[in-house]
């Protein structure tokens, strides 16, 4: 503002103008930075996964994590996070007594971050982060499954879970529900909402629907 301290300095700054070449250089630099971030942090985990099954990394918020683990409270058995990202859900699961707690993740940078967070929390060697494709992992011995994935993969994932999980298993989905399943319970609102599905009830519903369609 006129008369304010620093008026002369800001006036000189305001006189600086980017020409066409300057704008082009700025755009190129910005694009290069974005590409470098993708190439270093995200692309390594996607190279071997078909495009339709790729899920970009998006960290879970504190309330999302708390809601998801609340729906697993009091349960026991092997707990896995499919696409575990930076590992925060696995660490919280272990903290709440869900053991063993395992995360499956393809991105090596996120695996390094997960292991660092485990070490920092004092859980090094107590939780596991494995570089495995979630579509190729056998889930037949898992009793608690956490799924914070995009809606585009949910139908195919539902088929895999139905085929492999035991009746006693519970699946907790964050951000997006399974479109063809009826949840046993739900918690939270909006982006923080999570849904729990008990596999025994899901299978019964699928069987009833199949009988209804055949009659």
TrEMBL record:
<keyword id="KW-0808">Transferase</keyword>
<dbReference type="GO" id="GO:0016279">
    <property type="term" value="F:protein-lysine N-methyltransferase activity"/>
</dbReference>
<dbReference type="InterPro" id="IPR026170">
    <property type="entry name" value="FAM173A/B"/>
</dbReference>
<dbReference type="GO" id="GO:0032259">
    <property type="term" value="P:methylation"/>
</dbReference>
<keyword id="KW-0489">Methyltransferase</keyword>
<dbReference type="GO" id="GO:0005739">
    <property type="term" value="C:mitochondrion"/>
</dbReference>
<comment type="similarity">
    <text>Belongs to the ANT/ATPSC lysine N-methyltransferase family.</text>
</comment>
<keyword id="KW-0949">S-adenosyl-L-methionine</keyword>
<dbReference type="InterPro" id="IPR029063">
    <property type="entry name" value="SAM-dependent_MTases_sf"/>
</dbReference>
<protein>
    <submittedName>
        <fullName>F173A methyltransferase</fullName>
    </submittedName>
</protein>
<dbReference type="GO" id="GO:1905706">
    <property type="term" value="P:regulation of mitochondrial ATP synthesis coupled proton transport"/>
</dbReference>
